[in-house]
Amino acid sequence: MIDDERVEAGGTAWWARIRRLRDGAAAGGWALLPLRLVVGFGFVAHGWAKLTRGPAAFATILSALGIPAPTPTAWATSLLELVGGIAIMLGAAVVPVAVPLIVVMATALFGVHLRYGFSSIRLRAVTAAGAQFGPIGYELNLLYIAALVALGLGGPGPLSVDRWIERRYRRGGPTG
């Protein structure tokens, strides 16, 4: 632990201020808010993309991967990503929503991305039309899984539906 007075005397007062800001954010539960918003938005974007392209297109991919009941699974996955992403962003039922989202990410990791290695970016060429990329590896799947675990262990934070409900019931229930 760095002594604040020694740090300030040494000409790095800015570092002491950053540390106090960091400690305050962590103590107040605010540190995971940006992670919750970005991860939730990522799931919303992927769920929305699957729904707008039509779950039948995703079902074709699932069928090729040998996933059972591809059409209902496509619908369930698309809706889970969309609604689950919104719930994560709102901080609503973070732990119960994180578990099936981790299952989706693990399925994608082992069913699709593992064979392409770790890296999520494979630049093949840069042409007049722009960059051309190859298949992506499992890096993003691992990042999403790690983020969901961190959110589950860290709690929803102060700016969340879960915390609002908790405070409301601590004061005497929904009517008090």
Write the layout of secondary structure elements.
Blueprint: H1 4-9, H2 13-28, H3 33-53, H4 55-64, H5 70-90, H6 94-113, E1 123-127, E2 130-133, H7 139-154, H8 161-170
Antiparallel strand pairs: 1-2
Task: Work out the oligomeric state of the chains in this entry.
Answer: single chain
Query: Structural class given helices, strands, pairing?
Result: mainly alpha
Query: What is the terminal-to-terminal distance?
Result: 44 Å
Neighbour order of strands in the largest sheet: 1-2
Integer average pLDDT: 89
Largest sheet: 2 strands, antiparallel
DSSP helical segment count: 8
Count the domains. Answer: 2
Sheet-strand content, in percent, reads 5-15%
Helix share, percent? 55-70%
Outline type: globular
The poorly predicted ranges are none
What Rg do the Cα atoms give?
21 Å
Q: Secondary-structure element sequence?
A: HHHHHHEEHH
Total beta-strand segments: 2
